[in-house]
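Example (one chain per record):
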Amino acid sequence: MSHQYLYMSITAFWIYEYACSFHEEWEFLRRSRWTKVKVLYIITRYLPFFLIAMYLCLNLTPSNTNKCRILINIYSFVSQISLTFSESFFALRTYALWNNNRIVLLGLLSTAFVMVVTSVGIRFTIIATSNITASTIPGIQGCSWSPSSVLYLMLFIFLFVFQLGLVFLTLIHVIQSWRSSKGHLYVVLVKHNIFYYACGLLFSAINVIMPVLFPDSAYYIVLEDLQVCILRILATRMHLHLWHLDQHTHNSDALICISMPDISPADCPV
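Predicted structure:
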């Protein structure tokens, strides 16, 4: 029962965040050009509706053990997709900060491929070795399962290492920009969205520590879903913030061109 309360809290938090950013998001969806990144944003942003539906099926519909295993496999696979898409925004941001450096791109793609393949393998191994049961208590429906703490620890470690690499690459670029511009370090950190990276890394570190401190805890799945939710919010909010910042910059440039008629149109930024 406590698991359900935790999931309800996560869902309420996500709905609250969605309601708070609805106006900005609607403006982005209405005014932005259709690109691959926009499609990635929409999938990442609205995939939780499917996850919520899957969770309801796992906990509110009568099932047998085989059906439970199928539902848990689907739920875990969709969670991995959501996690991968969320991390894609941070990887794309890091790639853009390095001026589309091909070596950085090759390193990110190689690391991401290894992480995704390994994570998928670990996920299905966790489910295959877990004790999955369907409720036999009258009036109580749904599925339950007890994953291995060691395998979940490996899953969290792989994600932590990948995020640590992104933070490391971003900090290198931050230091280079700070030395060249000789400005305030805080301003440079904000400009590079380092705090989005730091929050994601913090939650990954917590999920790495929890299985070590509490090896018999039954809340690993909830922690993972909370991390997926937080990373999804951080990734989409960062992209939304960068888009609005870009729009503000273009609008400011346009106002400068309008207010200075003595400058020829060729001198105005496009």
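Caption: The two ends are 57 Å apart (CA to CA).
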